[in-house]
Amino acid sequence: MKRNGLGVAEAEARISSQLPLDEKRKWATHVIDNCGDRESTRRQVLRLHAQLEDSLHFLWARLAVGTAVAGLGGLVFLLIRHFIS
Hints:
This protein has a domain at 56-84. It has four helices and no strands. By secondary structure, it is mostly helical. It starts with 7 loop residues before the first helix and ends with a helix. It has helices at residues 8-16, 21-27, 38-54, 59-84. The chain crosses the membrane at residues 59-80.
């Protein structure tokens, strides 16, 4: 409420407009339950991260990052070459 400057009624309306957690779980690809202690959540995150690293689901992210880095590197090269010439 403080972060978004909402009153009680506005915050309750926003919360009630969301899907119930069970419905969200049906749509989720991965779920991390953060109701336990911090270490339990950390273990879940690390386990999921390891699974994603080993799967093709993570491949698109690696390719996107690699493409972005290569594109930025090429852009920097061209700008330097342009301004030096």
